[in-house]
Amino acid sequence: MNIPHASPPDATTASGKAAARGAGPRPSTPPNTPSSGASGAPSGTPGGPSGVDGRSSRWQSHREERRRELIKSARKAVHALGSDASMEDIAVAAGTSKSVFYRYFGDKAGLQQAVGEVVLGQMQRRIQEAAQSAQTPREGLFAMVSAYLQMAETSPNVYTFVTRHGHGDADTAGPSVSTAGALSHFFAAISDMIARPMRSHLGGGQDKEAVIGYWPNAAIGLVRNAGEQWLASPPGPAKPDQEAMARQITDWLCFGIAPELQTPPPAGADPVPDRGTS
User: Where is this region: Disordered (predicted)?
Assistant: First the structure.
């Protein structure tokens, strides 16, 4: 938006008025006078550079505040309406028009990206706080998994909205922005959180670095896929609660599924004979 500069006073008209009052024209200001701005108006006046900079700063601040309000409104709308809510639905819930959302975010995928940066940033901080309070690497893993599931469960609609691939809105044509950028940053940060206590616990060595280099990313894949399947599962006796699911995922991360693969001996069976003696 172009902000018009305030027009300087008409020197000819001012001079004519001064003559009409019997006063002569004011002497011209010498060049390079410190009180003059680049536009010829004193600094700090509406026509000077300070006035222009002030208006630009206030306008930018207004735009940023308005953008935050729209993101907050969109998040509330998606929470209530579902992850497939259209831009029209979101705009109506926000009490504005969808053209306003297009002006600030480009399209629906742009809105996904903006909401995702806020939501995933909050999740990252919450997971980091949980990890810092843990005493052991295993406790840290459980705390991070639990924090992740808690925040995702708080609003599954919003979680789905910001983590699925970007898509175009039905009202727009052409390619859309993807939420991959926000997701990539989020999971890279979580991977680093997981790797740090592991490196401290396992120590150095080339073999340990290989584990630390690959395992955190594999762990994130397990947590995310298991967590999203758990979120999508309907309530019922077979669905564990949040804490039980977090503990199950943590056990898989720490011990694998080897205990479940071991076949227990049949009830009442004799123990395996000791073949070490004759």
Answer: 1-67, 259-278
